[in-house]
Structure prediction request, 494 residues.
Amino acid sequence: MKAATTSHPSTRQEELGQFLTAAPVAGFMASMFGPLPGVVRLLDAGAGAGALTSAFVVRMCGENQGVRAIDATLYEIDPQILDTLAANMRKCERLAKSAGIHFTFTIHSGDFIEEMSARLGGDLFGAPPPEFDAAIANPPYRKISTDSPERHALRSVGMETSNLYTGFIALIQRLLIPGGQLVGITPRSFCNGPYFRPFREDFLEHLELRRLHVFESRKAAFRKDNVLQENVIFHAVKGRIQPDEIIISSSSGEHRDLVTQTVFPFSEIVHPHDAAKFIHIPSAASHAVAKEAMGSLSSNLASLGVTVSTGRVVDFRLKDALRKESEPGTVPLVYPCHFNGGTIHWPKPQARKPNAILDTHETRQWLVPSGVYLLTKRFTSKEEKRRLVACLFDPDQILTEWVGFENHLNYFHTAGHGLDRDLAIGLYAFLNSTMVDQYFRRFSGHTQVNATDLRTLAYPDRKTLQAMGREINVLDHSQEQIDLLVTKHLHVIS
Ligand SMILES: C[S@@+](CC[C@H](N)C(=O)[O-])C[C@H]1O[C@@H](n2cnc3c(N)ncnc32)[C@H](O)[C@@H]1O
Prediction:
């Protein structure tokens, strides 16, 4: 897939926000639609020379699309491009006919924002707004000032936005029928930043985001005002319930590149408690780097002489032996709630979980002798940044002969005993690294981390882990520091 767009250098084109979509990108966008009805009412707002509708028609003429008729509505304000647009639509007509599809089109040479805002705003004497089953868009982008006519028009339909492109998308969204689909390519700027917050709220309230595609190469960006814009392509469906999962895909933006994709829980892309509704798009480049770096690791837990097991204390089976606080005859019982950054914070009298377990002849089989253990959570909440959360049990901080690890965590050990300290801390850094987290996400779509997952992972060799461990003495490193350390020791070039 080659660079997303080509631009005409003149300022007139800049004023129109006219950056035409290159054919391979248009084809890719057309391929992102889900199943469509037999008769498709298609909207192409800001149609330019019609690259997107043409790609859509080409796609529907392919096999097994099940579309019998396409009724395209195109809006384009630039009179100079209208002849080309009409000629391209006639080409579509011929192509569709040869594939047995009935293609009709209407070109509106007016201002999409002005016309649609008026119709959506219920202009008493005007026509009601049209309805569409599908929309494909590369809207114009240009800042619109607070007192511009565009801004007023959009305000009249409840949309406060500072850029033409978000205005276009907000209007297109309103014209889709429930279940109607939108594939759009826009700058990525709407994904964060306070200015786009009303737009994000509007978007996420009415459109279910199914897929996001990013270009890794900056060359594939639009050039606007001499600033490189990063683009995103999205596929969204008109509806109010966001999916559980979303596809994040990427391609380099270079010629004939591969598209890689990963499925993420939606909650990792838009955090459920984020009032600003930022749309986080994980970098596919770092995924690729993670994959490569993980692929070069040759050790596994067996060769490290390390075992990972699930915590042996199943609390509901040992109810009688559990104590809220420690007392004579008990030993510490560690739950995920005791995780506190890199180390264990114990006891936690305020916690709802017990802090201790009786050390008896019966319970001893569920306990482990004190030592340095690396613990990981088996379940992470959707809000947690990383899927893998590792923390150190340090016998110097919690003095005890025996300890109980509860069943909601996994613990790394050496034949039932503690680990070499440097090795444990090296594992701590490795497992908490973004690299491992991203690698992990590639094969695990859920938030649960089982001991089996940790067993199948490739690890750095013992010497490397120990060297990493020696470099960390206090376990309160930031994510950035951990990542720097790990990439340095694994010679990862990102
Ligand atoms: C980014 S270009 C994309 C063109 C085409 N969709 C493509 O992908 O190649 C946006 C187009 O919207 C047109 N445009 C700008 N403002 C418009 C408006 N208010 N109403 C209708 N079209 C507009 C521009 O002339 C330009 O052709």
Q: What stands out?
A: Confidence is low (pLDDT under 50) at residues 1-9, 220-228. The two ends are 23 Å apart (CA to CA).
